[in-house]
Amino acid sequence: MAMLTPGVAAATELLATPPSPWLGEWSRFAAKLRFTDLSGDVVARTRLALLDCIGAIASGAQEPECQALAARMIAREGGGDAPVIGYAGGARPGTAAFLNGTAGTMLELDEGNQYARGHPAIHVVPALLAAPRGDGAALLTGLALGYEMGSRVGIASKLNVAMHPHGTWGTLGAATGIAKLHGATAEEFRGVINMASTLGLATSRKTMLEGGTVRNTYAGVANMLGITVWDLVRAGFEGERDGVATIFGHVSANDFRPEEMVAELGTRWEIARNYFKRHAACRYTHGALDAMAKIVAEHGPLTPDQVKAVQVHTYVWAAQLDSPAAPNMLAAKFSIPFAIATFIRHGAATVPAFRGPAREDPVTLALAQRVAVDEDAAMTAMLPGLRPARVAITLNDGRVLSAEVTTNRGDTEDPFTEAEVREKFHDLADPIYGRDRAKAIEEAVLAMGPHVEATSLVELLAR
């Protein structure tokens, strides 16, 4: 046998290595799963995740970049029956999945999962809505299963620290959801999982820190590829025998723990451990913003001219967001100094508080320069279950106002009520659809189940 460079395996060695046992167990589980296997709590949470994504997509689609992108792509390719949410026109399924996934991440308001360290639903919902099949029960089952696959890979591996999670394991989520919608067999699920694992993006965390808005397309690409994976498998293409272990154990991530893929499989559903967001900014800012809300609740509103300095202590990933610069909306949403400053200036971290005039406001920008952010190692040690932050505001009159939180509002440890999630949906969707149409969409989502056609929701989403 020829000598090889250390660390490089020959084909005979690779082929002699059996695939991880979890893959067969997962594939069989996915093929056998039925809507009736989901508990009432899981179904209710899945409906809310679907509703939340639709609201985030509809509102994000109003950003000028999204409107221009949809217009260009539909003009080039022609229209279609798949709804482009928040846009006056439909598209082909792959294009609609891409556009809706992109719009859903524009405002940093889509739900997420703290244990997976990412946003699973927005990587699955656009694909399912672009290619609906069957009734509402099938749609919800596909969403719960796709969410589970993406989340489990996120939990079982550690992405390289330089990578952004969007567009990585989310492709697996989209592909798994689509495969379930089409009634895939266990063997087809195995092919889908292996195929999708090698089609994720090589994303960069630096992109979000610089405000590179290409980052908003990552979830769109994952949804589009999720649909494509099913076509590839049905057409006879084959993937690596154990693609997840390779990609998420060696290529884009490391420390892949296959036991996490099947731990409590079918009883612990990740979509039931998700979080919802109200602050229109990166989740890493939310601990500091929640602490700000506590300060305002106790001491009343503040004005920028009252504030001498602000000190924020938080966990490592949040402490990365220490730049006060806000050259565009995305950069502003990934800046704790700007988020704190615009909260003080406008009374909340709403969607308008990060847009044009608010983002360019010189008073807000000057205040952001007076906000310092540092890591607290003890807070970092509380990850991933908790997301703590401490804020201390020094006023010009010498007083110091402070507050601390251990986790974000909306997390499983401090969840929003169903009524609060529904209120958020209307805040986002009513301006686009009108109150009556938005109410009809809400009712259609919350009624999703057996014998309720998924196409009825799709028709409501088309403007």
TrEMBL record:
<dbReference type="InterPro" id="IPR036148">
    <property type="entry name" value="MmgE/PrpD_sf"/>
</dbReference>
<feature type="domain" description="MmgE/PrpD C-terminal">
    <location>
        <begin position="279"/>
        <end position="446"/>
    </location>
</feature>
<dbReference type="InterPro" id="IPR045337">
    <property type="entry name" value="MmgE_PrpD_C"/>
</dbReference>
<dbReference type="InterPro" id="IPR045336">
    <property type="entry name" value="MmgE_PrpD_N"/>
</dbReference>
<dbReference type="InterPro" id="IPR042183">
    <property type="entry name" value="MmgE/PrpD_sf_1"/>
</dbReference>
<dbReference type="Pfam" id="PF03972">
    <property type="entry name" value="MmgE_PrpD_N"/>
</dbReference>
<dbReference type="InterPro" id="IPR005656">
    <property type="entry name" value="MmgE_PrpD"/>
</dbReference>
<comment type="similarity">
    <text>Belongs to the PrpD family.</text>
</comment>
<feature type="domain" description="MmgE/PrpD N-terminal">
    <location>
        <begin position="27"/>
        <end position="244"/>
    </location>
</feature>
<dbReference type="InterPro" id="IPR042188">
    <property type="entry name" value="MmgE/PrpD_sf_2"/>
</dbReference>
<dbReference type="Pfam" id="PF19305">
    <property type="entry name" value="MmgE_PrpD_C"/>
</dbReference>
<dbReference type="GO" id="GO:0016829">
    <property type="term" value="F:lyase activity"/>
</dbReference>
<protein>
    <submittedName>
        <fullName>MmgE/PrpD family protein</fullName>
    </submittedName>
</protein>
